[in-house]
């Protein structure tokens, strides 16, 4: 049964800092309301009135159980990759899934879902979404372009009108999940979707970033946007988090997490951390071919386990129940946990049937000795040399990332053998 949690109390995006909300008894009267462009409307009581467009969207999407936004502060971080593979992954669990591409100027979903040569058809019940699979529907402005290279040069009101049509005129049918892929930033499309969905349930936003601080700067703004518009944050996923050489298995941080990466930022801003996905050429190939990465790669790829974990976490957050993927069984699923072992440096993979195997090779004494050496150098170095300190911290972050990736890779390999 779809949830009916409303976002009607959402603070207007152009409101003053400290806005009490249009539904508050102090709306238009509080000290924070002084000079706000919405003050007169809120004071009259009209601010609390439901938006007719939002009510229409709620009615049209009544049979959609869970709505998830995929956002990013910075472009080029792999947001559409995460959105498309999240949709494919949820579809792999036999759920009914729809994915809506509201990146009006740069639509990616037609190609990433393998349906870029398809067309949208109109029937008596509205636009029919393009089907990437029997249980996976896709809608994007990309289907409406006369030429794939055509530029969409639209102002805000026209973008808002099309997004509303995607929500009200598309015959989505009964869906377990509707994934909405938004463009980067906090512009017209984001304001429109927040306004149109405020009368219905939004399970939350998945925010995508890469490890470097230049991307995290904009992610913090995205988190602020979600909080101001009352969109729950399901968590932040760190994409392109290290590259594992297929020959020597060495992990290299292409984008060094000099400020602690997404995990450090999540701790500072008190938002959930959803894990990390490494750079993986097979994941790129799946997106280029428009196919399910989890459905076509069963082993030997470093991004499989992290992506499967992400899909499982999002499904469990939305429904309260962990999904089962093809090929999994209740006895065969495993988790990584820190268990006491003979050398103290080992990790164990413990399966649900109680069996376990020690991953002695995941963290070697040599790796730890290198890390301890860097830390010791930091302690002995001159306290006023901030450049050297930052360089040492970057080395520590890189080594920790490599150790974590080795543990994850060893755990995935051990799980695949079971």
Notable characteristics:
418 residues; alpha/beta; 9-stranded mixed beta sheet; 13 helices; 14 strands; globular
Question: Can you describe this structure in just a few lines?
Answer:
With 418 residues, this protein is α/β, with parallel strands linked by helices.
Structure characterization notes:
With 418 residues, this protein is an alpha/beta fold. It has helices spanning 39-43, 52-60, 79-92, 109-112, 156-168, 188-196, 213-228, 261-269, 281-289, 293-296, 304-319, 365-380, 386-417, and strands spanning 64-72, 97-101, 121-123, 126-128, 130-133, 136-140, 175-181, 204-209, 233-244, 251-252, 273-279, 334-337, 347-351, 356-359. The strands form 3 sheets. Strands 1, 2, 5, 6, 7, 8, 9, 10 and 11 form a 9-stranded mixed β-sheet that branches.
């Amino acid at each position: 049964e779809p949830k009916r949690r409303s976002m009607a109390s959402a603070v207007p995006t152009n409101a003053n800092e400290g806005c009490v909300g249009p539904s508050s008894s102090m709306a238009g009267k509080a000290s924070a309301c002084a000079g706000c462009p919405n003050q007169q409307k809120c004071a009259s009581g009209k601010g609390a009135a439901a938006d007719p467009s939002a009510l229409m969207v709620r009615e049209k999407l009544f049979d959609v159980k869970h709505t998830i936004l995929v956002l990013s502060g910075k472009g080029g971080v792999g947001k559409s990759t995460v959105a498309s593979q999240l949709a494919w992954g949820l579809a792999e669990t036999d759920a009914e899934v729809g994915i809506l591409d509201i990146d009006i100027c740069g639509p990616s979903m037609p190609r990433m879902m393998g349906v870029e040569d398809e067309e949208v058809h109109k029937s008596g019940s509205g636009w029919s979404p393009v089907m990437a699979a029997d249980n996976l529907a896709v809608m994007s402005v990309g289907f409406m372009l006369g030429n794939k290279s055509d530029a969409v040069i639209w102002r805000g009101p026209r973008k808002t009108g099309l997004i509303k049509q995607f929500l009200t005129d598309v015959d989505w049918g009964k869906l377990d999940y509707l994934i909405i892929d938004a463009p980067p930033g906090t512009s017209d499309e984001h304001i429109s979707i927040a306004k149109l969905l405020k009368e219905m349930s939004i399970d939350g936003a998945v925010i995508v970033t890469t490890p470097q601080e230049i991307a995290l700067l904009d992610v913090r703004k995205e988190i602020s946007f979600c909080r101001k518009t009352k969109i729950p944050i399901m968590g932040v996923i760190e994409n392109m988090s290290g590259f594992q050489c297929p020959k020597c298995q060495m992990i290299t941080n292409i984008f060094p997490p000099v400020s602690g990466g997404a995990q450090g930022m999540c701790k500072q801003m008190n938002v959930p951390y959803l894990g990390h996905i490494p750079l993986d050429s097979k994941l790129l190939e799946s997106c280029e071919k428009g196919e399910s990465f989890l459905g076509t790669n069963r082993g030997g790829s470093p991004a499989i386990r992290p992506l499967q974990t992400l899909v499982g976490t999002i499904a469990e957050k939305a429904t309260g129940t962990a999904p089962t993927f093809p090929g999994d069984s209740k006895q065969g699923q495993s988790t990584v946990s820190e268990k006491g072992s003979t050398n103290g440096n080992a990790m164990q993979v413990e399966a649900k049937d109680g069996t376990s195997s020690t991953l002695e090779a995941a963290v070697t004494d040599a790796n730890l000795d290198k890390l301890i050496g860097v830390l010791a150098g930091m302690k002995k170095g001159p306290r006023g040399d901030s450049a050297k300190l930052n360089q040492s911290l970057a080395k520590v972050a890189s080594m920790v990332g490599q150790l974590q990736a080795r543990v994850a890779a060893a755990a995935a390999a051990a799980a695949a053998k079971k």
